[in-house]
């Protein structure tokens, strides 16, 4: 499995650390149910899933990686900071 | 007061020569992480050019020359090696002193690419990794920075605490490459 880092180029999976699903963070003051969903509820698809990966052994970027959980095919990669996941100031 | 004696990271470990390859320690001088503030990339590059004679490196590139080098060091960061950073740089970037924090070695000679091919999971052959190119990657599970400084020469850096492991792993790989003849 290889991930194409937007900065470093195509790299081996061993350089990356897996975080989990890439969800849009609710805005400050959001409803309790929304936060409950963000913190606890996850999809478990056999197919494409947006995930957060950290290029730990490379450029130290957080990446939003779209991976097919059934085939491990990497469908899309972008910097998490540019993926509109919330928390921007 | 105690008399403190400076010890380089690879003190007592290097130099090593195997086959036609040599592994030596570099004295990089001062090392500072330079991380431009949001939107200050261009202004910082100009200030760096004015003060130290090299532009801020693009991703996977190094600028400058031996003794005064700026090596791309990850997202939004470069490592200034050699000079103490000019005070003006602080207007555009966060400066962090990393001097003595990294072990810096130079691997040189016929077969150096083959040695690194055993340790670093990135294509470092001359056709795609030319002089002035750099990568952040792993070297046998250690976070490393590898920069090509010559046709057969690489600058390799890992955390200072891993200097002994770095020398061991490089030496083992050099011996294995040399043994193949």
UniProtKB/TrEMBL annotation, chain A:
GO terms for biological process: tetrahydrofolate metabolic process. InterPro entries: SoxD (IPR006279), SoxD_sf (IPR038561). GO terms for molecular function: sarcosine oxidase activity. This is Sarcosine oxidase, delta subunit family. The lineage of its organism: Bacteria, Pseudomonadati, Pseudomonadota, Alphaproteobacteria, Rhodobacterales.
UniProtKB/TrEMBL annotation, chain B:
Gene3D superfamilies: Probable tRNA modification gtpase trme, domain 1. It comes from the Bacteria. This is Sarcosine oxidase, gamma subunit family.
